[in-house]
Design brief:
Helices cover 23% and strands 31% of the residues. It is built from two helices and five strands, in the order E-H-E-E-E-E-H.
Length: 101
C-alpha cells in the first residue's frame, strides 16, 4: 500500500473550506458522509477509468487546530516501493498547494 503523509499549517480555521476546493481542483471528490469541520475525506471519482489498485484517497485532518496544524494523508493500493505511482503524483501536486511546514 502506498501511503504518503505530511504536516502543514493553515491560516484559516475552516479546514473543509480551505482544503476542500484544493482537492476538488486536483480531481478528487469530497465524501460528504465522512467530511466534517475537523476532517476532509476525498477520493478519485467513482466512475473514473482508473484501475482499483491505483485509486487514491486523501484525508486531511487537524492535528493542532489552535496552531493551525493539519496532517495530509494520501493512500492507494499501489506498492509502496513502486516508482511513478498515482499516489506519489497526487502527493507531489498537493504538496505545491499545501506545502509541508
Amino acid at each position: 500500500m502506498a501511503l504518503i503523509r505530511w504536516l502543514s499549517r493553515l491560516a484559516s480555521r475552516d479546514l473543509p473550506g480551505t482544503v476542500g476546493p484544493l482537492l476538488v481542483a486536483q480531481g478528487f471528490v469530497i465524501d460528504a458522509e465522512v467530511t466534517s469541520e475537523v476532517q476532509v475525506f476525498a477520493t478519485d471519482p467513482q466512475h473514473a477509468p482508473i484501475p482499483m489498485d491505483q485509486r487514491v484517497s486523501c484525508l486531511a485532518q487537524w492535528t493542532d487546530r489552535r496552531a493551525g496544524e493539519i496532517q495530509i494523508e494520501l493512500r492507494s493500493s499501489e506498492p509502496m516501493l513502486k516508482r511513478d505511482t498515482r499516489c506519489g503524483a497526487a502527493a507531489s501536486r498537493l504538496r505545491h498547494l499545501i506545502p509541508p511546514h
